């Protein structure tokens, strides 16, 4: 369990066994219309403690520093938790002279979603909160709907934060959500990292995601909305009940129902163990961070090198494959490398990583495929690069004047010449893996590239084949950051046509290795200001 306060472990124990133990998890279902829930003053608020400005400020304090006039983006679905978070965050921003922008994502999965988003807009305007609605367009998956919707939601909100220049995204996960997450991960035996639950802070591509309500119960959140009587002229602030929250098809809903039905003694035991789980994850993530800092380097072409894992003199090397802290840290660390190099959202299973490392350590194989990558042993180190056969083979169109992500790993930006003479050809630009380019298969091409770019001489051919190539029609223009004139020299020496390059010399080509997730996010945010 996560708390956002800087407290000792003794105080953590008192916190969990004292303050939270006195509260009961409860859900009140008073429905107005189909999904709307209204709260009124009365006995229903007695078991919950409303959050006021001071208590919410204390929850936000561990995430400091903020700007002098902080600007926040808050995710609002219309449920009780997100409505309360938006109201509290608005007051916090006003007190600090900042600004708040609320965002709702319509996933297009329910007929009522658009009407609910409009209702949220009407409610938030009462508090002076600007509200934006984003839509997840395109085909929807037939399986893992909630997981895919969550990924799309975070991607859309992160992009909005980038466009608006906002660095902080607030989401309303709370204590009960955390309890459900920990229980599900324990059921799946997810290990030390997973069993500690959600982090109070994580890093997205353009902003940081903050969860200030992780120590706040659902009942306190609902009490906060009930206490809005007089603020808006109504008897409490209403909210929406999402019907998917009671659909037993989803694992989280089944887990929630079991937790609600659990005996009081079982819930108390869960709370007492939560601090221990968090402390174990802190220790593990510190070890992972040390492993990555000491043994891993990541190059701009998206290839990682892992040193020291086979050196018998190194104490950590002998522990790979074991269940101790150091061995597990190495396995988790290599998993993060595979996630970054492969452009994946999640690392492979820890057991799969341990198995791969054991095969390489015993020299039963020199190459092993895992997580869309190749682990390639060379003497006493491992190269990790994208697996060419796992990549999309079709051309990816590119427009001049806008950034284009490719394979969830690279970003290409093209700036047109001032005379605008390329407008007619712009629609024929695309990105493909270099391995699909005809000149790449000529030995003289690769030899000339190695003279131009020294790292090519030491890269496996399959690693080079996975690099992005910008092409016009079927003619190569630029490879992973190479300037056009350099590629022209290489193509000319290899006997390849170069006339087409004259049209594009004025284009400014910028490649960046930009994976979906950073190599390391900095650890589990259990305590303040790590």
Could you name the key traits of this structure?
single chain; 530 residues; alpha+beta; Rossmann fold; Chorismate Mutase Domain, subunit A; 3 domains; six-stranded mixed beta sheet; five-stranded antiparallel beta sheet; 21 strands; globular; disordered N terminus
Q: Can you describe what's shown?
A:
By secondary structure, this protein is an alpha+beta fold. It has three domains: 28-242, Rossmann fold; 288-389, Chorismate Mutase Domain, subunit A (Up-down Bundle); 394-513, no CATH class. It has 15 helices and 21 strands. The protein has helices at 9-20, 53-60, 80-95, 113-124, 145-164, 175-187, 191-195, 218-226, 251-261, 264-295, 325-342, 350-361, 443-452, 461-465, 484-493; strands spanning 31-32, 36-37, 71-75, 99-106, 130-135, 168-170, 201-203, 208-210, 239-240, 296-298, 304-307, 367-370, 373-378, 381-386, 396-397, 403-406, 410-415, 429-433, 468-472, 475-479, 508-513. The strands form five sheets. Strands 5-4-3-6-8-7 form a six-stranded mixed β-sheet, with helices on both faces. A hairpin with a 5-residue loop joins strand 10 and strand 11. Helix 11 packs across helix 12. The longest helix has 32 residues, at 264-295. The radius of gyration is 26 Å and the shape is globular. Residues 1-35, 37-46, 312-324 and 524-530 have low confidence and may be disordered.
